[in-house]
């Protein structure tokens, strides 16, 4: 894995795991020191994250983890419902056994992560399930726009969600109906699934967590110093 890709995955994972909270500033100097690199690859990663809407760049102030408003959060899930119902409809027309097997394995990984209490890993796999469905539709635009929406969903869940493990059977039911060609049932289940996620968001209060960038990426600094 290249230098920039490693930094990208590390920062994105820190956002998903709620170590980096909404509105937290990404200070280039601190990140560069933490990863043992110059500021150039860090700057490139920040731009990539900004393109995915995970990070917001404020002129003359810097880059910050995005902080979607309640209205924006609702709009994200509204758009997800539009795209993902269309995805399910299209996938039902051209779904292969290999695609079914791959998605079944992903659901098994999701359930195992939930069982083990690895909540943030389960959240990541959940997003992957929706993205793999979009891939299976054969429409690259569905996947492209859904990828951005799911990235924003991670931030929204970090900001407004409750940190708890809950075994969800929705994905299995959606997948089985797609596999059997029951398009209307699969579409309705996807709609209900996304409504349920939105309904569980808590828009009344926001929790804060005080971790510095240096604390979050301490392990990378230690690895860098041990290999130098």
Features:
mainly alpha, 228 residues, 2 domains, Four Helix Bundle (Hemerythrin (Met), subunit A)
What does this 3D model show about the protein?
This protein folds into two domains: 3-67, Arc Repressor Mutant, subunit A (Orthogonal Bundle); 70-199, Up-down Bundle (Four Helix Bundle (Hemerythrin (Met), subunit A)), CATH 1.20.120.530. It is 68% helix and 4% strand. It has helices at residues 3-16, 28-35, 39-51, 70-91, 97-115, 119-136, 140-160, 170-179, 183-199, 213-216, 218-227; strands at 25-26, 55-58, 62-65. The chain is elongated, with a radius of gyration of 19 Å. It starts with a helix and ends with a helix. The relative contact order is 0.16.
The strand line-up of the biggest sheet is 1-3-2
Q: Could you say which overall geometry the principal axes of the C-alpha atoms support?
A: elongated
Terminal CA distance? 18 Å
The overall pLDDT, averaged over residues, is: 87
Output the number of helix runs: 11
Q: Secondary-structure element order, as H and E?
A: HEHHEEHHHHHHHH
Per DSSP E runs of 2 or more residues, the count of β-strands stands at 3
Q: Main beta sheet, described?
A: 3 strands, antiparallel
Report the sheet-strand fraction: under 5%
State Rg.
19 Å
User: How many structural domains does the protein architecture include?
Assistant: 2
Structural class assignment: mainly alpha
Which spans of ≥5 residues are poorly predicted at pLDDT below 50?
A: none
Q: Which range best describes the helical content: under 10%, 10-25%, 25-40%, 40-55%, 55-70% or over 70%?
A: 55-70%
